[in-house]
Amino acid sequence: MKAFKLLLLLPIIALLIGCGGENSASKATRLGTGGTGGMYYAYGTELAKMIDAEGKGHALDVKMTAGSAANLRLLREKFLDLAIVQSDTLSNAINGRGVFAAAGPGVGYAAVAGLYTEACQIVVSKNSGITNVSDLVGKRVSVGERESGVLQNAEQILMAHGLTFEMIETVYMSFTDAASAMEKGQIDAFFITAGAPTAAIADLANHKEIKILSIEPDVQNNMMKLYKGYTRCTIPANTYTGQTEDVQTIGVKAVLVASTDLKDDEVTYLSEFIFKNADKLPHNTSNKELTVKYAIEDIPASFHAGAAKFYDMQGVKVNVYSGKSSESVKASQD
Fold first, then answer.
1. Can 28-115+253-333 and 119-252 be said to share one CATH topology?
2. Which end of the chain is more exposed for a tag (fewer CB within 10 A), N or C?
3. Are strands 29-32 and 60-63 parallel, antiparallel or unpaired?
4. What DSSP character marks residue 303?
5. pLDDT in tens, 134-192
6. How crowded is residue 277: how many other Cβ atoms within 10 Å of its Cβ?
7. 226: Cβ–Cβ under 8 A, 6 or more apart, which residues?
């Protein structure tokens, strides 16, 4: 009987040992990114490799997710320690708006740094006859994955042109799946919000003639007035194969966010590492070098205490997370 009871307990004992072991995987900081064809994943995997190569005992466990909204939910639910998210999606989460209304104002995570500008990219086949957003009526369009920041951007861009999801044939695809579907002629257009060049678009452009739609200046102005977080964004000519002209669009900031449970020293180390190696990490090619001003400006959340310590060493004060949802961020040069 004792032997029988021991056999029943063995799986539980094994699970407890596995969960409590001091292996490298359990020590790694869990970083939520996005799909494999986007800049979040490229940035996160390269950052993890560089941190590992430094050999100072720090490690990142990069997690592939649906994107910004999913990352913020997973942070709140303690399944992630770090995540990269869109600034506009972060603003909605902090204030409990949109898809975050049911959960209420976001707590339990705080900003680390704005990393680079993400371009809202609307990709069509070059021979599709689609020359502007209004031409998407009745077309098969990927508007991003569910729980992605792209989904909100797509809806707002369409609305700014007098369109709704009901006026197009919507599909919900990852960057990689959308590019593959366009190459096969299964969709007419897809939305991507990511630093340019984006891997999924770059790969597609090497196999198929594509065009990225510009957004007219007056539409950009209206969107920046209506929605917090948008900024003008240029995708320089020759960013992608066959792209001979600049593309004028709008963009949002990619923001690194940390769980407030993550130790201050770990966040300070990450902040220092990112600034020290910013030029070696994937980012929007139209961005200039990462500066402290860029990293803290227009970030719709309070900052993690560990990040604040880093900025304090740079002579800059930021609003530190105090346990409550807050969109008031102030910085001053000392």
1. yes
2. N
3. parallel
4. B
5. 999 999 999 999 999 999 999 999 999 999 999 999 999 999 999 999 999 999 999 99
6. 15
7. 156, 160
Nearest to 329, CA basis, from 292, 291, 300, 304: 300
Specify the CATH architecture of the domain 119-252: 3-Layer(aba) Sandwich (3.40)
Q: Give the CATH fold of the 28-115+253-333 domain.
A: D-Maltodextrin-Binding Protein; domain 2 (3.40.190)
Q: What are the residue boundaries of the structural domains of the chain, listed by start?
A: 28-115+253-333, 119-252
Inter-residue contact 69 to 79 (CB < 8 Å): no
Residue 242 has phi, psi (to 5 degrees) of 85, -5
| Paired tokens of 22 | 């001091």
Neighbours of 128 (CB within 10 A): 15
Q: Determine the Cα–Cα distance for residues 334 and 311; give it in Å rounded to an integer.
A: 11
Query: Under a CB-based contact definition with an 8 Å cutoff, are residues 120 and 190 in contact?
Result: no
Tens digits of residue pLDDT in 223-268:
999 988 899 999 999 999 999 999 999 999 999 999 999 999 999 9
